[in-house]
Design a protein that fits this description.
GO terms for molecular function: beta-glucosidase activity. Belongs to the glycosyl hydrolase 1 family. Keywords: Glycosidase, Hydrolase. The protein is of the alpha/beta class. It has a single domain (7-435), classed as TIM Barrel. 43% of the residues lie in helices and 14% in strands. It has helices at 14-17, 25-31, 47-60, 72-75, 84-99, 115-119, 128-143, 158-178, 188-191, 200-205, 207-217, 232-252, 274-284, 289-292, 333-342, 361-380, 423-435; strands at 7-11, 65-69, 103-107, 149-151, 257-263, 266-269, 297-301, 305-309, 312-314, 348-353, 385-391, 410-412, 419-421. Strand 12 and strand 13 (419-421) form a beta hairpin.
């Protein structure tokens, strides 16, 4: 039995579900002729207008938490000019959650940024922490009274992961070319090690054309979005942005529990891979400890494990079940990650993302059962895990890979926007009903 007060819910990200996020940098990238996105988000799941319907579905299934993000590009579409209507919209979303007995867990920045921020250097600019701080102060001053949990930044480490996986992909492609078999390179081995939808093959194919187009759109060949490959200095900028946000939140809304989320693999060292596995864990998690140890909680986001041999990351074992995203089906990885994180972080942990891309909902049901069994064992051993947010509430726009992958507890018909709950929604809700 999960502990009293344990939150069970589902998660979304604004850009992936709201639709028509026209002031964001990722919207601009999607619309480009030489985009690495296979398709644009357009109206996505129309969640900006249909949020009440979606939250009602979540609540009626028994879930008692909803993790969602506020879209900075909507709130501050022009630098220094805040849209009060957008702020009121998110106030309505928060109130809707509470009407349905659902705890709102808000993320302030989930990958997409205002176009103007990226135009001014994005997440490699020394001015970004100040600009993020201004946004955070505005939004927390307006909405903080109604919130209990705030994630400042989603997957603060994703830029480092993208840099590493992009380099791995390039090496794989070069090796294939040497063998005169470049036409067979799919990139799946590299892409399956990244816990977000990236289209690395197309990124390489259109790179030169895209750089020319980016010069016209952003004024630079390689715009530094949050999901760009990140430098060490860029990583420091992200951490400074988080620290500034944390200070603001504690001053303006001291009752709010504040943290960030990290994309974490259950890193398994194969014989001879121990040193590389430790290096990968340090890059993914350990080196953030000096900053996050002052946080109230850490958002743990996990989808699979990572096998590390003497030559680095290895593909899933032969014959292993793979998801639509190319990940190894590995719900037990969540327990491994929680235990690894808890060795160095003693404050509250919350699973802010965990899920599976599949059209076989029975496998999602099995995934949820096994993942929550692992969480239950962690709680029984005294690890302070306070909640589980499944990714995702509904099928959505999976970044560069478009709408083909289905992570949702709810199916969304792209033609009619009709919502159809899957059995997995009620299954997840049964844990909340059972344990509360």
């Amino acid at each position: 039995m999960l502990p009293d007060g344990f939150l069970i819910g589902a998660a979304t990200a604004a850009h992936q579900v709201e639709g028509n996020n026209v002031h964001s940098d990722l919207w601009a990238l999607e619309q480009m002729e030489h985009s690495s996105y296979v398709e644009p988000s357009l109206d996505a799941m129309d969640h900006y207008r249909r949020y009440a319907e979606d939250i009602a579905l979540l609540g009626s299934a028994g879930l008692d938490a909803y993790r969602f993000s506020l879209e900075w590009a909507r709130i501050e579409p022009v630098e220094g000019q805040f849209d009060d209507g957008a702020i009121e919209h998110y106030r309505d979303v928060i109130r809707c959650c509470k009407t349905h007995g659902v705890e709102p867990i808000v993320t302030l920045m989930h990958f997409s940024s205002p176009f103007w921020l990226t135009e001014h250097g994005g997440w490699e600019s020394d001015d970004t922490p100040r600009r993020f701080e201004r946004y955070v102060e505005k939004i927390v001053s307006a909405l903080g009274d109604d919130l209990g949990y705030v994630c400042t930044i989603n997957e603060a480490n994703i830029g480092f992961q993208i840099a590493r996986i992009t380099e791995l992909f390039k090496r794989q492609a070069q090796a294939a070319q040497v063998k005169a078999a470049s036409h067979d390179v799919s990139g799946s081995a590299a892409e399956s090690n990244l816990q977000m939808g990236m289209n690395l093959q197309k990124m390489l194919e259109v790179r030169q054309l895209q750089e020319k187009e980016c010069e016209q759109v952003f004024g630079c060949a390689v715009p530094q979005t949050f999901t760009s490959a990140r430098s060490k200095h860029g990583d420091e900028i992200v951490m400074e942005s988080h620290e500034r946000a944390r200070r603001i939140i504690r001053r303006v809304a001291p009752h709010v529990r504040v943290g960030l989320t990290l994309s974490l693999h259950d890193i398994v060292a194969l014989p001879g891979g121990e040193q590389l596995a430790h290096k990968e864990w340090d890059e993914e998690y350990l080196h953030y400890l000096p900053v996050i140890e002052a946080d109230d909680f850490l958002g743990v986001q996990n989808y699979t494990r990572s096998l590390v041999g003497p030559d680095g990351d290895q593909p899933a074992p032969e014959g292993a079940e793979l998801t639509q995203a190319g990940y190894e089906f590995c719900p037990q990885a969540l327990e491994g990650v929680i235990r690894s994180v808890a060795e160095n972080f003693s404050a509250e942990l919350m699973v802010t993302e965990n899920g599976i891309a599949t059209d076989d909902d029975s496998r999602r049901v099995a995934f949820i059962s096994e993942a929550l069994s692992g969480v239950d064992r962690c709680c029984a051993d005294g690890i302070p895990v306070s909640g589980y947010m499944h990714w995702s509430l509904m099928d959505n726009f999976e970044w560069q890979l478009g709408f083909a992958m289905h992570f949702g507890l709810v199916h969304v018909d792209r033609e009619t926007q009709c919502r159809v709950p899957k059995p997995s929604l009620e299954h997840l809700g049964s844990f909340a009903k059972r344990d509360h």
